[in-house]
Amino acid sequence: MPRAHVYGDDVNTDVIYPGRYSELYDPAEMAKHAMEDLDPAFRERVRAGDVIVAGANFGCGSSREQAVICLQRAGVSAVVAASFGRIFFRNAINLGMPAVEAPGAAGAFSTGDEVELELRAGVVRNLSRGTEVGFRPLPPFLMEILDDGGLVAHLRRRLEAGGRG
Amino acid sequence: MGRTIAQKVIARAAGRGSVEPGEIVIARVDMAMSPENSRLVMEAFERIGVQRVWDRERVVILFDHRVPAPNIKTAAAHQEVRKFARAQGLTHFLDAREGVCHQVMVELGLARPGELVVGTDSHTTTYGAVGALSTGIGATEMAGVWATGELWMRVPATHMVRVDGAMPERVGAKDLMLRYIADVGPDGADYACVEFAGEAVAAMGVPGRMTLCNMSAEAGAKAGVVAPDRRTLAYLRGRAAAHLAPVRADADAAYASHRAYDAADLEPLVAAPHAVENVHPVSRYAGLEVHQAVLGSCTNGRFEDLRAAAAVMGDRPVAPGVRMLVVPASRRELLRALRAGLVARFVRAGAMVLNPGCGPCLGAHEGALAAGERAISTTNRNFRGRMGDPGSEVFLASPETVAASAVEGAIADPREV
User: Fold this and answer.
1) C-beta separation of B348 from B368 below 8 A
2) CB neighbours (10 Å) of residue B253?
3) What angle do CA B367, B371, B374 make, to 5 degrees?
C-alpha cells in the first residue's frame, strides 16, 4: 500500500531538485537527487506509488520540470497539497502526475501512514488512522490530460484525431 | 463591469469577446521563449510527433543559464539545441551571446504591450514591465506550444498594488518588492496577476518596472504587469517593430484586492535565508560578514542597477575577503556600462565582471558558494542551496545594498557608507 511523505508549507523546487543538477537530462539520474536539499532520507524511503502530502504552495519557485520528473521517477504517484506553486501544478498535470489541492491534508497524515487517493471522488484516505480528507476534484479538462497520461499523449491523440491541441 | 489587462489580453488570445477570472480557456500565444531547457522541450516536442514548430518567427531560443558552457554535458546540450533551432529555421535563435532571456526579450522588443508571452522560466513575468501578459510554464507544456501555438490557461484574478510618493535616496524597486512579498507571503499572489500603478511606478521607467514584474513571481504570481504609458512607448521606440496594441485596464475593472504603499516609507531591506519573504531592515543584519557580493541577474542586472551600485561604492575598493561578481543582464547593458565607465570602476575596485547571463543566481556554474559561506545578492531567490552548497546562505537585497556590503565586507546600509 502506498505511503505518505509529509512536508510543510512553501516547499520550493530548488530543494526538490537543486539547480546544481540542471545539467542532467536523464530522468533516472534526476531521480537520485529528488528532495535532496530538504529531506536527504527521502530517496531511501520512497516506494513506487507513494504520495507526497504537503502544506501550502508546494513546488513554488523555478519552472524546472525536473522537480516533477525526479519525484515521478523516484516513484511518487501523486502530490496532495493545500495549494501549489502554479508552474509545478501545471507541470505535474502535463507529465501525468495528479496534483490535487486538499487543504488540511498535511495535518491529517504522518510520514509512513498508508494512503489511498480517489481522484474522481475527491477524497484522500489515511488508512493507518481511518480518517479521510475531501477535496474538489480536478476540472474535467485536466482529468482528460491525466487520463491520457500527460500532455504529450493528449496532444498526440488530439492531433491524430485531426483536432487542435 | 470593466476588465483588467489580464482579462483583455487573454480574451483576445482566446478569440473571445470577454473572459472571467477562474475560467479555463485555450489561448493562442504571441511569443514563446525558452533558454537551456529547450533541450527538454525538444524531447517532448519530438514525442508529440509534429515536424515543425507552429510559427518559426514566434519561437525564441537562447542560452543564458550556463554560458559559456561550463562543461562537456552542457556543451553537448547547447549543441543539440543549436542544431534543432537551425533545422527549424527559427528567426530568433540568439545562441549564448545576448544575456539573460528576460532582459533580451524586453530590450529586443520581442515582448510587446498587449501580447501573451510564455517562457520556460518562472521569471517570464518580467515582460509585464512593457505591458505584456507573460508567464512561466514548464518544458512539456512548451512542447505543446511549439506544436500548436496554444495552451490552456486559467484566467487570473488581478491584485492592484499602488505605490504613490517618491522613493527615498538609495531605496528602489527591489526594496519595494521585498516589502510586498513580506506583506503578502510567498503565495500571496498565487495563480493571480499583480498590477503595479501609482506615482512611484510611473516615475520608475521600464528598468525598475522589470524588477517589479520579475519579483512578482516570488509572491506566486502568474504575471506582473504595469499599464503601458508614455515611458513604455518611448522605451519601445526603435525596439519593437510593427504596430503596437497597448492594453490598459478599464477604470471600473474588478480587482481581487487593493494594496497601497507610500514610497517615502520604504527603506533598504534584505531577505534573509532561506525564504524570500524573510524580510528585515538591513540594519538588523548590519555587520554580518559576507564572502560574495553578486550584482546582476534578470532582477537587477541592468545599466541603471550597475550605475546605482557604482554610485554607492564611490572610489572604495571591494573589501578583502569579498568576491564581488558583476553580471550585466545583457550584452547591450554591458555596452552601456562600458561606455559610461562603470566597468572600469568595478574592475579597479577589485570586482570580477562576468559575461552577461544568469551568472551565479541558480548555483548552476560560476560563483558557487561553499558550505558556511554567505552571499549578498541582487538576484531573486535565496532558497537553501540556491547558489551552491546547502550549507551556504544567500541574502537578497538591492544593488545599492549589495554595493555597500561589498565595500564594507559585511552587510551594510547603503545610506550609511
Assistant:
1) no
2) 18
3) 60
Single-letter residue type at B242: A
May I ask the CATH class of domain A4-137? alpha beta
**Which residue in the block uniquely carries the three cell numbers 521600464?**
B206
Q: Which residue of A has its CA nearest to B39?
A: A25
pLDDT per residue as tens digits for the range B386-401:
999 999 999 999 999 9
- Three cell numbers at B38? 529547450
Q: Which three cell numbers stand for residue B157?
A: 484574478
Beta bridge partners of B394: B375
Strand order in the sheet with A115-118: A115-118, A123-126, A131-134
B175, pLDDT greater than 70: yes
Position A165 pLDDT exceeds 70: no
**Which helix (H) or strand (E) is B352 found in, with range?**
strand B352-353
Any chain B CB within 8 A of the CB of A39?
no
Domain boundaries, chain A: 4-137
* Chain A residues lying within 8 Å of B37, measured CB to CB: 63-65
User: For residues B46 and B69, what is the distance between their CA atoms, to the nearest angstrom?
Assistant: 24
Rounded-to-integer distance, Cα B102 and Cα B189, Å: 21
* CB-CB neighbors (< 8 A) of A10 in chain B: 186-187, 275
Q: Is the minimum CB–CB distance between A47 and chain B shorter than 8 Å? A: no
Measure Cα distances from B348 to A55, B147, B318, B352 in Å: 49, 50, 9, 10
> Among all chains, which residue has been given the C-alpha cell 469577446?
B17
What the block records as the C-alpha cell of B331 is 550584452
Interface contact B385-A64, CB threshold 8 A: no
Q: What ipTM was assigned to the predicted interfaces of this complex?
A: 0.94
Q: How far apart are CA B285 and CA B395, in angstroms?
A: 10
- For residue B313, the surrounding DSSP H or E stretch is helix B303-313
Q: Which residues of B touch A66 (CB under 8 A)?
A: 40
A118-146 residue pLDDT tens: 999 999 999 999 999 999 999 999 999 99
Do B143 and A10 count as a contact with CB atoms less than 8 A apart?
Answer: no
Delineate the domains of chain B, giving CATH numbers in brackets: 5-261 (3.30.499.10), 269-416 (3.30.499.10)
pTM over 0.90: yes
Handedness of CA B369, B371, B373, B374 (dihedral sign): positive
Dump pLDDT digits (tens) for A142-161. 999 999 999 999 999 998 88
| Residue with grid cell 560563483, as numbered in its chain | B367
Q: How far apart are CA A145 and CA A154, in angstroms?
A: 6
Strand duo B31-34 + B24-28: pairing = unpaired
